[in-house]
Write a structure and sequence with these properties.
This protein has 2 helices and 9 strands, in the order βββββββααββ. By secondary structure, the protein is of the alpha+beta class. It has 2 domains: 66 residues, no CATH class; 62 residues. The strands form 4 sheets. It has a 3-stranded antiparallel β-sheet with strand order 5-6-9, with no helix packed on it. The chain has a two-stranded antiparallel sheet with strand order 1-2. Strands 3-4 form a two-stranded antiparallel ribbon. Helix 1 packs antiparallel against helix 2. The longest helix is centred in the middle third of the chain and has 29 residues. The chain is elongated and about 75 Å long. Bound molecules: calcium ion. The site of calcium ion has 7 residues, from loops.
């Protein structure tokens, strides 16, 4: 199992198959040091990746990073700034419509409610189209780390 810090542990069943019981956590090492994937949120998986008969460990992590994109041209920047400005305007309208659908003073009349919901869907579509015009400020991704099990030295 892995943890948010990026460490991985082996926890053996010290009970039985029908009455399992967790044993102590063993922090797994690689190269003589405890494994610590750099971005944290370690998700380990044991598999014989190289087919030599020993289980190896693959560990996924997660990172939130600013995407490495080329600088926009002046024309692209102008279009992106316009899309961001329009998004801000629409965001206020969006909040008003959400309040009309979900808020404490939400619209009760079914016909009026249907009208507001339709307006909200149209606004959501418009906002989605605008979002596609603006590069993301941050992206989530991750790496997969491979730890090959080797026979003990000596
Ligand atoms: Ca192997």
């Amino acid at each position: 199992m892995g943890d948010i810090r990026g460490r991985i542990f082996l926890v053996r069943n010290v009970g039985t198959k029908t009455e399992p019981e967790y044993g102590p956590e063993l922090h797994l090492n690689a190269g003589g040091k405890p494994i610590l994937v750099p971005c944290g949120d370690a998700g380990p998986h044991a598999a014989d990746w190289d087919g030599d008969g020993d289980l190896d460990v693959l560990v996924g992590d997660i990172a939130t990073m600013k995407p490495d994109l080329p600088e926009p041209t002046a024309e692209e920047k102008k279009a992106q700034d316009a899309a961001r400005a329009e998004m801000e305007t629409l965001q206020a309208k969006y909040q008003q419509l959400v309040d009309k659908v979900l808020g404490a003073n939400r619209v009760k009349d079914p016909a009026e409610r249907e009208k507001v919901q339709k307006e909200l869907r149209e606004l959501q579509n418009k906002m989605q189209a605008l979002r596609a015009k603006v590069p993301p400020e941050y992206e989530n991704h991750g790496w997969v780390w491979y730890f090959e099990r080797r026979p003990a030295e000596g």
